[in-house]
Amino acid sequence: MNSKALHQITYGLYLVCSVKDGANNGQVANAAIQVSNNPVTFAVSINKENLTHEFIQSSGFVTVSVLEQETPLTLIGTFGFRSGRDTDKFAEVSHQLTQEGVPYVTEHVLSYLAGKVVGEMDAGNHTVFVFEVDEAEVLAQGTPMTYAYYHQVKRGTTPRTAPVAPQEKEVTKERSDSMDKYVCTICGYVYDPEEGDPDSDVAPGTPFEKLPDDWICPICAAGKDAFEKE
Ligand code: FE
User: Fold this and answer.
1) Pairing between strand 190-191 and 126-138?
2) For the chain, what is the total number of helices (H) and then of strands (E)?
């Protein structure tokens, strides 16, 4: 099998949320698609290790928020690289509840869908949850984030619990030695001085050594000391 064949598949980027015993949790997901229009039915694929998986199985409710193209890496990091087991992902994130009390994120979100799970299929280390959409609304106008844009333009990374393998990044061969890239040992994010970190107001051309001491990884919030020269 040539796994590169899978790199031609296109995806969006979504926040999938659920609830259990009054607690909210959610995560980033790229495997989410409409699978029927009568009734309107959606499917999401969730890693069995993730807390969101446990919440969806427990409550039977799920929401999907569609992220806009310029969603900051910090929001994606909160939902993609931290576990709801040790942090409340909703503490500082704008969100609302559906009529059934299920959370959905509203910041940097173009629209959301919500519904009740009507079926699930075991799929290796993931479960595919199928749900009928009974609530949906447009929250903002804009361009939705795609998985490719997240990797190629935003230079985001992928946790090992994602359903698809991380895509290979294009490597720029011409760069000066004084502008070394540094990689986050926690999440794999690469700080490239040529690009800086626009989401944190770090200008392009800023060497890693010149980043402020309180600068943190835009994806997983690790400190500078978690970074190693690539
Ligand atoms: Fe990180």
Assistant:
1) unpaired
2) 3, 12
Ligand 1 center to 224 CA (angstroms): 9
Report the separation in Å between the CA atom of 162 and the middle of ligand 1, taken as the mean of its atom positions. Answer: 16
17: tokens are 């949320």
Rounded Cα distance, 200 and 74, in Å: 9
Instruction: Return the bridge partners of 29, or none.
Output: 14
In terms of residues, how long is the chain?
230
Per-position pLDDT tens, the chain of length 230:
998 898 889 999 999 999 999 999 999 999 999 999 999 999 999 999 999 999 999 999 999 999 999 998 889 988 988 888 888 999 989 999 999 999 999 999 999 999 999 999 999 999 999 999 999 999 999 999 999 888 887 778 888 788 876 555 444 444 445 789 999 888 889 999 999 998 888 999 999 999 999 999 988 888 898 899 99
